[in-house]
Amino acid sequence: MVAHMSESSTRDFYDELARDYHLIFQDWDASMAHQAQVLDEFLHSRLGPGPHRILDCSCGIGTQAIGLALGRHEVIGSDLSPLAAARAAAEAAARGVSLPAAAADMRQLPFKSSIFDVVLCADNSLPHLLSAQDLQAALIGMRRVLRDDGLLVITLRDYDDARLAKPAATPPQVSETPDGLVINFQLWHWHEDGERYDLEHFQLTPAQNTWNVRVRRTTYWALTRQQLTEFVTEAGFTSLAWHTPASSGYYQPVLTAQRTSSP
Q: Could you tell me which residue ranges the Methyltransferase domain spans (predicted)?
């Protein structure tokens, strides 16, 4: 049986999370700045100082895109969730930068060919695609919108260990906000294939003498580094390199690759 991404369920997950996504972070603006600094080092080492024209094709509420825009890059955002994309644009404007953002499926990017220096797909977004067919469509589309020698940057969870350990949950993450403590944690329900899992994201926010509990559900494909390397290579990218959190300072493993002039 071939699994495919349910567009509606993934979009619903991020539509529901869009208002509260920043509560995942201890300090969202500080995280924006740090992530942009690390990502900019990848761009600088591969493409030079820039500024560069960047498509963040899973921009969410703008965690990476806003930081890069503040770093004087020209950033365009797209996301499956229209509510997340709208918030990204608004949050950027509130910080004095422009971030055009639109709702779009990464498997059908609505942009002209060869117009971006960089395509970014961060925050474990690519593993929402649950089949080889969907992954190939997305990666070929990312390659299409990149200029020759343009840079692809993908970040995702370290699934090599997770595929072996099959964790059932993540440790609770407690954040201090102006309104009080916020608690986030996840439950993972593994499929029989041992590769995909359903995720339940729990977010507890303080209310008067109690807690508001929000639960959102989605599905991921726990892609190993070898699997993703093969998909990216098949899509026509070269110069692939993996960067670990220990070496890069980024919170997830990062894959960089470049578009070649021929498929």
A: 54-150
